[in-house]
Design a protein that fits this description.
12 helices, 10 strands, 258 residues, alpha/beta
């Protein structure tokens, strides 16, 4: 009987060792300017880390800041403004040891390919053209790209002429959708969105000078409520320090150390 019990215990131990590891899920809140770049990075990460799934929600950084402040269960926060994760770290809601600047964003004036406005020649002055009746930007109240767009228009002297035409997207991705759908005739959107294959084929753009608006320094961190901190940190490192850096650079981000 004793030998039988020992053998049974050994079999149970072997059965336990042979079980595949439980799948891990990392939930991510990400600024909408990252949608195309981060989708590509997630696909690359899944290919090399098959045991981990990554689920991303895209939106405005300010709204995610408010949600995480109120206990939203995200594991990683990628913000279009590094100030938001830094503020969360100061409040104990993001692990300060994980804070990282993953890139610097740029903005462009974007028009559909069918537009008669010569945006490449007129630059930001295209927004004041009489044929442009509506101009979309992200809402400056909670979207860093909206604040950058407003600052650029003021800096380059077209804000007063363009202000009556402005329509606001909830985030910079929605601002781009407004132009794509015809709800706006032009927009100021993220370069990372303009470089996406679908947008590149559908329109033309002019890049706003970097010194015309505050620097769009973008940052990320792991939240203090992350369910699997190790998995969350690995994904963040992959995007900000590992293979994801090359993907971000292809979408127009200035990447530290690249």
């Amino acid at each position: 009987m004793r030998h039988f019990l020992v053998a049974a215990a050994a079999l149970l131990l072997l059965a336990g060792c042979s079980r595949p590891p439980e799948a891990r899920t990392v939930t991510v809140a990400a600024a909408s300017d990252l949608q195309f770049a981060l989708d590509e990075a997630v696909a690359a990460y899944r290919a090399v880390t098959p045991g981990t799934d990554v689920k991303v929600s895209y939106g405005s950084s300010g709204n995610f800041y408010a949600q995480i402040s109120n206990g939203a269960p995200y594991d990683v926060f990628f913000s279009a403004d590094v100030a938001y994760p830094r503020q969360l770290a100061d409040r104990g809601l993001v692990d300060p040891g994980t804070l990282v600047v993953y890139g610097v964003g740029r903005i462009v004036v974007w028009v559909p390919a069918s537009s008669g406005v010569d945006v490449e020649r007129l630059g930001i002055g295209a927004l004041a053209d009489p044929s442009v009746r509506r101009v979309s930007i992200a809402n400056p109240q909670h979207a860093p790209y909206g604040r950058a767009a407003e600052a650029a228009m003021r800096s380059l002297g077209v804000y007063d002429a363009v202000a009556p035409k402005l329509v606001f997207g909830e985030n910079v991705s929605q601002a781009a959708q407004f132009v794509q759908s015809g709800a706006a005739d032009a927009g100021i959107v993220a370069l990372s969105i303009a470089l996406a294959p679908s947008m590149r084929a559908a329109g033309r753009y002019w890049e706003v000078p970097a010194d015309a608006h505050p620097r769009l320094e973008q940052g990320a961190g792991v939240t203090s409520t992350a369910g699997d901190r190790a998995a969350a940190e690995r994904f963040l490192q992959f995007v900000a320090v590992g293979a994801g850096k090359a993907i971000l650079a292809r979408y127009g981000f200035t990447v530290p150390g690249a």
